[in-house]
Design a protein that fits this description.
single chain; 15 strands; alpha+beta; Glucose Permease (Domain IIA); 20% strand; 383 residues; 43% helix
């Protein structure tokens, strides 16, 4: 006798057929009894429909979740873009506001007459480019009116500064000086202090600074030109510049300056800004001598003094007391021997003493761009 052992698949098949076997359903309505038979195929169809519905619901739920995730991601992206726009607008507004403040400070310094090369270089406003972000660019357009006003003022100041430079240069040429002389001596030095980098500066204001710097050098150099009388009191003109009869030998000799005679102890004043090069007894005939170096190769000498007031290395201003008239050295009486030298060569001092004080004062550094020129010293009004 052979024994049959069902396999695992056969066992599942039997269970499946038993699950979907025909089923009888009896309905009793109180009068009669009815019998309904539900076949296996109908049961499988109903179950398949339910399973399909469950699968569809699951797929739809997953799709909805994915769609919601996409919407959330887009919303997050939009929020991030908005935040980026806000940050860009904040940075653009802050940079433009800072630039306007820097421009205001720079222009104020120029207009108030407190400008120096160091101060202006430190105050040079930074250049601010138009933002790449469209919203930020639209935001800073609100500063357009202030921006235009500042640029117009800077352009006007640059034009006025250039005109003043041309006028000063023309006046120097009329006085026999090449304006380049006063910009050739531009020695500089000192500890390093970072200033606004030229590449980082606002181009319009960098041009204004360059023009102002050229004018500043010219006017600073003009302060080295002797432009006053060394004596304020009325004195006698006893000897001129050039060949004369030597008072001791009687023979023709070159006189490198002029002689102004007056009472012993008459105050002697510097005729231009400068530094005392020598304040000493000179055995070559000057006696007590004060020599001032005015820069740009210009010197003045004051000889035969009874007393020297200033010391070598001391900085003096135009009109400052530097000594007292005397008769020391090779002298026949109380007087001042006064010389003007350019590049070591003596020139006639008379034209420098005859220059109108107002004209020379105008060559000096003004109080402010476009403002009235300041008087140049105690001896400015002397004749």
């Amino acid at each position: 006798m052979t024994t049959f052992v069902p396999t695992a698949n056969q066992s599942l098949s039997v269970k499946f057929r038993n699950f979907f076997k025909p089923r009888d359903i009896f309905l009793h309505d109180g009068k009669s009894l009815r019998r309904f038979t539900i076949g296996a195929r109908l049961q499988m169809a109903v179950v398949s429909g339910i399973v399909a519905l469950l699968i569809w619901s699951l797929v739809a739920t997953i799709a909805a979740i994915n769609a919601m995730s996409g919407d959330v991601a887009r919303m997050q992206q939009q929020v991030a873009q908005m935040q980026s726009d806000v940050d860009a607008m904040r940075v653009a507004v802050r940079e433009r506001a800072t630039q306007l403040e820097q421009r205001t400070a720079f222009l104020d310094t120029m207009l108030t007459g407190e400008a120096t090369a160091t101060r202006l270089s430190q105050q040079l406003p930074r250049n601010v480019e138009t933002p790449d972000n469209a919203r930020a660019a639209a935001m800073v357009e609100g500063f357009g009116r202030a921006d235009a006003m500042q640029l117009a003022l800077a352009e006007r100041l640059e034009t006025m500064t250039r005109q003043r430079y041309n006028a000063r240069a023309a006046e120097l040429r009329r006085r026999g000086f090449d304006p380049a002389r006063f910009q050739a001596y531009t020695g500089q030095g000192g500890p390093y202090e970072a200033a606004a980098a030229a590449d980082d500066a606002d181009p319009r204001f960098r041009q204004l600074f360059t023009t102002w710097r050229a004018l500043d050098q010219l006017e600073t150099g003009a302060a080295s030109i002797p432009s006053a009388r060394p004596i304020n009191l009325s004195v006698n003109f006893t000897s001129g510049y050039g060949v004369r009869s030597d008072p001791f030998r009687g023979s023709a000799a070159m006189h490198a300056g002029i002689d102004l005679a007056g009472p012993l102890g008459t105050p002697i004043y510097a005729t231009a800004d400068g530094i005392v090069g020598r304040s000493e007894w000179n055995s070559g005939g000057y006696g007590n001598l004060v020599e001032l170096n005015h820069g740009q190769g210009i010197q003045t000498r004051y000889g035969h003094l009874s007393q020297r007031i200033v010391q070598a290395g001391q900085r003096v201003r135009r009109g400052q007391l530097i000594g007292l008239m005397g008769s020391t050295g090779r002298s026949t009486g109380s007087h001042l021997h006064y010389e003007v030298r350019i590049d070591g060569r003596a020139v006639n001092p008379i034209p420098f003493m005859q220059q109108p004080a107002s004209t020379m004062a105008a060559l000096q550094r003004p109080a402010a761009i476009g403002g009235p020129a300041a008087p140049g010293g105690a001896a400015a009004g002397s004749r």
